């Protein structure tokens, strides 16, 4: 596939990059050389100039160059192989933009390249999901958002109504969905009830902030991660017309993106809804640049600990319980010190759900099982596999 037909070159050009900066190393689609060959890179970045479905945030298609300026100037602490593909320009219809985005992402995944998408409005999450449909890959989605953007069944697609489109889409390739950082006053009881019925996993802002380490296994379970910048409090990220006083702080959102970069499973990530019209002295652009930096930093520090049950560097723990689970099997990777749970499922679903059998967890989950409890992650996955 000739991806260059979807992209405009990077208009922001600055050849005067400081020594050891990212800009000095990154290959940029600037129109002066051939379009980057995906097979030569580990990570690609691209913008999406699309905000026609943004709710109360027109202008969020125009911020990618502001992020680039900040990101290119950051120092690199690793040998990196990164390309900036430029910006996907808006199609005649929004659906045309979705097609271009999904095509670009699926091409990256096929080449084992991590795409970092800079939006644009968050309904582009749907286009990201469609990339996996073309690959026929069942996926786990995690969003970092102060709301659950469900919308009504008959409501047109927009940045506040895309999750229902993913859930109801046929053929369906969604296995699990998790939200990090929702704020209760932005989420209806009906939405929370639906999440519970579907055995999806949602976490209030206060719950997440109380123990950020427990975020790691949730993010490690994601194939794709979608971040709405309004999940960060307005004091740290004013560059969004829907920003609110509460949310993650800058350090916390960067910790989340580092966890994402560290995950061997994660194969795409998008950061959406940055609006330069309302930013203050480029503060939000700078924060997003740092978030991207932490993704890259995590990527180049991946442990390569994609779990195999019989590996030499794996310890197996079998915990007997008096619950319906009878026993729960845990695995600990000695190289990374990270944990997984083995969730049994019917033989009839073996081939379809094999990659979802081992669920990332934490030592806290192991302790809960030792105290005769069933970890929530185990139970939800078990019910989805029935």
How would you portray this structure in words?
By secondary structure, the chain is of the alpha/beta class. It has 2 domains: 297 residues, 3-Layer(aba) Sandwich (Arginase, Chain A); 72 residues, no CATH class. The chain is built from 13 helices and 14 strands. Strands 1, 2, 3, 4, 5, 6, 7, 8, 9 and 10 form a 10-stranded mixed beta sheet that branches. The mean pLDDT is 93.
Sheet/helix structural class? alpha/beta
Q: Tell me what portion of residues adopts beta-strand conformation.
A: 15-25%
Q: Low-confidence stretches at least 5 residues in length (pLDDT < 50)?
A: none
Q: In the CATH hierarchy, what is the architecture of the largest domain at level 2?
A: 3-Layer(aba) Sandwich
Q: Give the rounded overall mean pLDDT.
A: 93
CATH fold type of the largest domain: Arginase, Chain A
Counting DSSP E segments of at least 2 residues, the number of strands comes to: 14
**Bulk shape:** globular
Order of helices and strands: EHEEHEHEHEHEHEHHEHEHEEEHEHH
Q: Just give the CATH class of the largest domain.
A: Alpha Beta
Q: How much is the radius of gyration in Å?
A: 20 Å
């Amino acid at each position: 596939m000739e991806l260059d037909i979807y992209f405009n070159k990077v208009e922001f050009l600055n050849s005067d990059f400081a020594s050891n900066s990212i800009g000095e190393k990154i290959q940029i689609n600037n129109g002066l050389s051939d379009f980057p060959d995906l097979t030569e890179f580990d990570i690609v970045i691209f913008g999406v100039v699309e905000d026609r479905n943004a709710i109360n945030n027109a202008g969020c298609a125009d911020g990618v160059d502001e992020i680039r300026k900040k990101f290119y100037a950051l120092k690199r602490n690793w040998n990196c192989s990164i390309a900036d593909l430029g910006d996907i320009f808006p199609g005649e219809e929004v659906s045309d933009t979705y097609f271009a985005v999904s095509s670009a992402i699926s091409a990256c995944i096929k080449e084992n390249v991590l795409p970092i998408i800079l939006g644009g409005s968050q309904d582009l999450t749907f286009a990201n999901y469609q990339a996996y449909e073309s690959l026929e890959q069942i996926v786990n989605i995690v969003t970092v958002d102060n709301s659950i953007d469900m919308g009504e069944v008959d409501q047109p697609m927009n940045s506040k109504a895309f999750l229902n489109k993913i859930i109801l889409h046929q053929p369906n390739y969604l296995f699990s969905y998790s939200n990090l950082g929702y704020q209760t006053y932005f989420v209806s009881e009906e939405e929370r009830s639906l999440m519970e019925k579907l055995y999806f996993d949602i976490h209030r802002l206060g719950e997440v902030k109380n123990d950020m380490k427990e975020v790691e296994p949730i993010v490690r379970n994601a194939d794709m991660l979608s971040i709405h910048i309004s999940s960060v409090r307005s004091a740290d990220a004013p560059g969004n017309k829907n920003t609110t006083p509460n949310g993650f702080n800058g350090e916390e959102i960067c910790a989340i993106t580092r966890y994402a970069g560290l995950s061997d499973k994660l194969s795409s990530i998008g950061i959406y809804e940055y609006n330069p019209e309302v930013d203050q002295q480029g503060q939000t652009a700078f924060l997003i640049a740092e978030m991207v930096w932490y993704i890259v930093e995590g990527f180049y520090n991946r442990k390569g600990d994609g779990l195999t049950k019989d590996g030499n560097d794996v310890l197996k723990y079998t915990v007997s319980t008096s619950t319906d689970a009878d026993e729960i099997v845990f695995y600990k990777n000695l190289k990374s010190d990270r944990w997984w749970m083995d969730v049994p499922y019917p033989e009839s679903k073996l081939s379809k759900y094999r990659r979802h059998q081992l669920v990332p967890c934490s030592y806290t989950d192991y302790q809960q099982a030792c105290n005769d409890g069933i970890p929530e992650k185990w139970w939800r996955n078990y019910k989805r596999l029935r």
